[in-house]
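Marked as duplicate of an earlier ticket. Keeping the data here for the record.
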Amino acid sequence: MNKQEIKETFQKNDLHVTQAVKILLKQASLYAKRIKVFKESDEKLNADKIADCEEQRAKYIYKAIETATKEKQQHWRFIEDQNYYNDKFNDKYGDIDFATNWDDIERLAFIYRLELLEKNQKEKGALENVE
């Protein structure tokens, strides 16, 4: 998918580009830059690396679309409304040790993973550190 196709998908499905979506799309763009560098150096030698990067790029694009869809369905955003979710989580369980709903734990882990991705992007860390 290119930028235009992503934009059309978001418009067609009435999805919003939130902070979480931006983080995931930025990760995809970092892989696109890496692909460009590999292609400029020697495409034949780096064919496996290019294929791996293409796969990761696609994964982050689809994860961004999936995240935007989830945010739309749940009516709150992962990063911007993190305090809302944390309060809701604490009201429900009191502590993470007592969490029993796997979906709630997955959401919490996803929020923390997004924060880690964003931190790594700002520090210009290696892409492999966040896989």
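See parent ticket for discussion. The two ends are 21 Å apart (CA to CA).
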